[in-house]
Design a protein that fits this description.
- The complex is a heterodimer of chains A (545) and B (347).
- Chain A contains 20 helices and 13 strands.
- With 545 residues, chain A is an alpha/beta fold.
- Chain A folds into three domains: 169 residues, Orthogonal Bundle (MutS, DNA mismatch repair protein, Chain A, domain 3); 81 residues, no CATH class; 242 residues, P-loop containing nucleotide triphosphate hydrolases (Rossmann fold), CATH 3.40.50.300.
- In chain A, the strands form three sheets. A six-stranded mixed β-sheet of chain A has the order 9-10-11-7-12-13, with helices on both faces. A four-stranded mixed β-sheet of chain A has the order 4-8-5-6. A three-stranded antiparallel β-sheet of chain A has the order 1-3-2.
- In chain A, helix 3 crosses helix 12, helix 5 runs antiparallel to helix 7 and helix 9 runs antiparallel to helix 11.
- Chain B folds into two domains: 222 residues, P-loop containing nucleotide triphosphate hydrolases (Rossmann fold), CATH 3.40.50; 105 residues, 3-Layer(aba) Sandwich (Cytidine Deaminase, domain 2), CATH 3.40.140.
- A nine-stranded mixed β-sheet of chain B has the order 5-6-4-2-8-1-9-17-18, with helices on both faces.
- In chain B, helix 6 runs parallel beside helix 12.
- Chain B starts with a helix and ends in a 9-residue tail after the last strand.
- About 4% of the residues of chain B have low confidence.
- The interface between A and B is medium-sized, with 20 and 24 residues.
């Protein structure tokens, strides 16, 4: 069971309002950025100053990205190649002697970081303090002693005089061995008339007795193995070659030792600056994430919200991002909604299919996005920071816990009551609708009254009559079908059966504040009528009201 | 013509596949390395499907190590590379992960011995081979995993060398029959021009099963693998059926089931992607031919040569010349090379 204490937003709400999707869709380019994205934490009320700075930085990056596309693409390409090598950095920190592949990783990263560093220096306007990179020149020089400038790594001869000396000796000895062996093979050929292969072997069939006899008598070869059909002889090596082969073995051991020594020295020198490398990694993660946020903001036409000091939410032409995407796929546009809310309870009523739930999600999404230092899908927004955002959706079933719709809601309401005295945003969709209207309405009224004078800000949607009569609440209505041409609508219904699209076309999703304490609009029967429910039933139902 | 001449300047990616474990695949690979070194060609070496090779370590039979020359480009899992005694310049860490670490591409700076464990999936091998070409390899040689001949698939390598040898069976005639059968499979006829226009490569890519009638109309068969769906495939065949497109691998049982339910099975031409997808024994193949099953491939394997190794690591061997000559006679259109003796041993 999820306890929301001390959590800004729980996973369920994150998912339900579409915040999850937006965070996942942030187009980060590096694993460092990915990690930063996944572990993003919201800015709370006490972080207000910092959040303002961060959002200002995002503005700068977004503007730059929109104005200087090619430069931004260069920066993105430079980011894109940076691989996650935290494992190697950690080993370096522990002063473990690294292997060639690890040095290669480090060298690549240093070269890539330096390239990014130079690029950022040349774009001063976005080179913000939060992602200042340390220079990697020293490291690049250290790992590229031959100044090849390439992104490859080798235990270069130039690492030490000893290493290049050992290798030179090795090459000479190898050459001598090769020449001596060749000479020995030729001697065998001169004596027996058979040329041994490069591996010094001669294979002869058992049938060739004279050759076998010659080989057997020769002191230049020795029999090494035999099979059913033949014998294998090997060229005997003389003392000189044996000595040389031994010397080569010694040189190889020396080479290994020297290489190990060099690797140790490199680790020693590099490990002194591990802190710098970690700073660079953090800077790259920050830069990657903020660019991703900027690109995404441009993509969904998002703007920077103004952060207010008080508890207040004002959204002009707000859009719920994932609903907008879904509508766009169908070829239609979302109708933006204006809303302003103060501390206390705001009640929204209105037609079925009037978009009340989407409005709740839009408000909570915009608040959450702001606190995650992202821009918001609206024309403008003023947001007072919250310490939590909590959404309770009325038709939610909590199967895991074996609770019905009503049971699940009561569970949610218990959590809400526990948090009501904190500065937070509470959203309750279709309050208490999962039970009988009489008791449901009574519970709803009690909850509203309880929440009214708490520190939290609450938005509740409902169809219940009578809730709007509670003193002190702000009461908003969805405009709904009031302005719609009903005969046109009915005609549309006759022509095609997609109700969803018809309602999307005629429904006015905007909200208006209602000052008089009149009852909720009677839209249910209208909707039923348009959808073609039997006229007799409609008439009869009207009679009951 | 010598083996290297059949390859050099003609193909960029070739594969070496073995008839069985220890049939001489690695001997062939070493032979190619030596011959390309003699003409001064820069080669790239990697392998496919390490999974089979682990067994090799377990059975402890002789497994020749690869001696790589200076400038050779190799692609192998990190752990095996670090164990090698050749001196390597690390060029790239690829995204291909194996149980022995990421596949790393390196250039040999000082010759020495290496063990190659390339990417485990065939899809990654093509990318890695192309990267090796970018790093300067004139020819990339793919060492196909033991008992897996998929490296020969034309979607992966342009040409193939088949290694056969005494290790396959104690009976030389048996080895010859199996090898001739394998060559026959690799030489399967390609479907006529007109048919390939029906978008076959996409069908195979999407792993679809299609039946096409005389008028060119095609119909899906709703299965995901042939392995136990022979009857479903057979039931889709009627008097008008002309082609049957079979994605993925096919086994003998598939055809046995088709024959048992389809009256008109003989009138249909069965199309597979390439011969590496056919898993039947030589005995089963003969039965299918007798029963009138006609199989065509979309892509033909370009078999360059058969290499023979008359020695078995299990302690017996064939008469080298007899083995070579018999195979040469049975395979008049293919170069047959004794890699133990070399190409100049006899002629």
């Amino acid at each position: 069971m999820q306890i929301i204490n001390n959590v800004f937003i729980d996973e369920r709400t994150k998912k339900s309002i579409g915040l999850d999707e937006i965070i996942n869709n942030l187009p980060t380019l590096t694993d460092y950025g990915n990690k930063a994205k996944i572990s993003m934490t919201p800015y709370l009320k006490e972080d207000i100053k910092e959040l303002r700075f961060v959002l200002e930085d995002l503005s700068i990056i977004k503007r730059f990205a929109e104005m200087n596309k090619s430069k931004m693409n260069e920066i993105k390409s430079a980011l894109h190649v940076i691989k996650d090598i935290h494992g190697t950095i950690k080993r370096l920190q522990g002063r473990k002697v690294l292997n060639e592949v690890e040095f290669f990783e480090l060298k690549c990263q240093f070269i890539e970081m330096e390239k990014l560093h130079q690029l950022l220096i040349s774009t001063e306007e976005i080179y913000l303090n939060r992602f200042k990179l340390n220079s990697s020149k020293f490291e690049i020089e250290l790992l590229d002693p031959e100044k090849s400038g390439t992104k490859t790594f080798y235990m270069y001869d130039a690492f030490s005089v000893d290493l290049s000396e050992i290798r030179k000796n090795k090459r000479e000895v190898e050459k001598k061995i090769r020449l001596m062996k060749e000479k020995l093979r030729e001697e065998v050929f001169d004596e027996i008339g058979l040329m041994p292969k490069k591996n010094d072997e001669i294979r002869v069939d058992r049938g060739k007795t004279s050759e076998i006899e010659k080989l057997g008598k020769s002191d230049k070869v020795v029999m090494s193995s035999e099979t059913f059909s033949g014998l294998v002889f090997k060229v005997k090596q003389n003392n000189d070659t044996i000595q040389l082969v031994n010397k080569l073995g010694d040189l190889e051991i020396q080479e290994e030792k020297e290489e190990f020594k060099i690797r140790k020295i490199l680790v020693e020198k590099l490990s002194r600056n591990v802190e710098k490398y970690e700073e660079n990694i953090l800077a790259v993660a920050e830069l990657d994430l903020i660019i991703a946020k900027a690109v995404y903001a441009t993509r969904i036409s998002a703007v920077k919200a103004d952060i207010c000091d008080d508890v207040y939410i004002e959204i002009v032409k707000g859009r719920h991002a994932s609903t907008e995407d879904a509508l766009r796929l169908k070829g239609s546009e979302i109708i933006p909604v204006d809303i302003s809310i103060k501390r206390g309870v705001t009640l929204i009523t209105g037609a079925n299919m009037g978009g009340k739930t989407v409005t709740l999600k839009m408000v909570s999404l915009i608040v959450a996005l702001t606190q995650y230092a992202m821009f918001v899908p609206a024309q403008s927004a003023k947001i007072g920071l919250m310490n939590f955002v909590y959404l309770s959706v009325g038709d939610e079933q909590s199967e895991k816990q074996g609770l019905s719709t009503f049971g699940a809601e009561i569970f949610n309401l218990k959590e809400i009551i526990a948090k009501a005295d904190e500065v937070g945003l509470i959203l309750i969709d279709e309050i208490a609708r999962g039970t009988n209207p009489l008791e449901g309405q009574a519970i709803a009224k009690a909850i509203i009254q309880y929440l009214q004078n708490k520190k939290s800000t609450t938005i509740i949607t409902s169809h219940f009559d009578g809730l709007c009569a509670i003193d002190g609440i702000k009461y908003l209505q969805v405009k709904g079908l009031r302005g719609a041409d009903l005969s046109k609508m009915k005609n549309d219904v006759k022509r095609k059966a997609k109700y969803e699209e018809i309602f999307e076309k005629y429904m006015d999703y905007r909200l208006e504040e209602v000052k008089t304490k009149k009852s909720v609009p009677r839209d249910a029967l209208l909707v039923a009528e348009i959808m073609g429910l039997n006229k007799e039933i409609i008439d009869s139902a009207n009679g009951f009201i | 013509m010598k083996l290297v001449d059949l390859i050099y300047n003609k193909y960029k990616i070739i594969s070496v596949v073995g008839m069985s474990k220890n049939a001489g695949k690695t001997v062939t690979l070493n032979y190619l390395i030596e011959k390309f070194d003699e003409i001064g060609a820069v080669i790239g070496i990697t392998s496919t499907g390490r999974d089979g090779e682990k067994l090799d370590i377990v059975t402890k039979t002789e497994k020749p190590t690869i001696f790589v020359m200076e400038n050779t480009i190799i692609a192998s899992a990190k752990e095996t590379l670090l164990r090698s005694n050749a001196k390597l310049e690390i060029l790239e860490i690829t995204n291909s992960r194996t149980s022995l670490g990421e596949v790393v591409i390196a250039r040999v700076k000082r010759s020495g011995y290496v063990e190659i464990a390339g990417p485990e999936t065939n899809t990654q091998i093509k990318d890695i081979a192309n990267r090796m070409i970018e790093y300067g390899a004139e020819i990339v040689i793919l060492d196909g995993a033991i008992n897996r001949k998929t490296a020969a698939a034309p979607t992966i390598s342009e040409a193939t060398i088949l290694a056969t040898g005494a290790a396959l069976s104690r009976d030389m005639n048996n080895v010859i029959e199996e090898t001739v059968f394998q060559v026959e499979l690799y030489s399967l006829e390609v479907i006529e021009e007109g048919v390939s226009k029906l978008g076959l490569s996409k069908r195979f890519k999407d792993k679809e099963f299609i039946i096409i009638d005389n008028e060119g109309k095609s119909e899906f068969i709703n299965i995901t693998t042939t392995l136990s769906s022979g009857r479903v495939i057979g039931e889709a065949i009627n008097g008008d059926s002309k082609y049957m497109v079979l994605s993925g691998s096919i086994v003998y049982k598939t055809f046995e089931d088709i024959i048992s339910v389809a009256e008109n099975y003989k009138d249909v031409i069965y199309i597979v992607q390439d011969a590496t997808k056919i898993f039947v024994s030589s005995r089963e193949w003969k039965i299918l031919k007798k029963k009138g099953i006609a199989i065509r491939v979309m892509n033909r394997i370009n078999l360059l040569a058969v290499t023979v190794n008359p020695y078995s690591p299990y302690g017996y061997n064939f008469d080298a010349k007899d083995f070579l000559h018999t195979l040469e006679k049975r395979l008049p259109n293919i170069a047959v090379i004794d890699v133990m003796e070399g190409e100049n041993a006899d002629n």
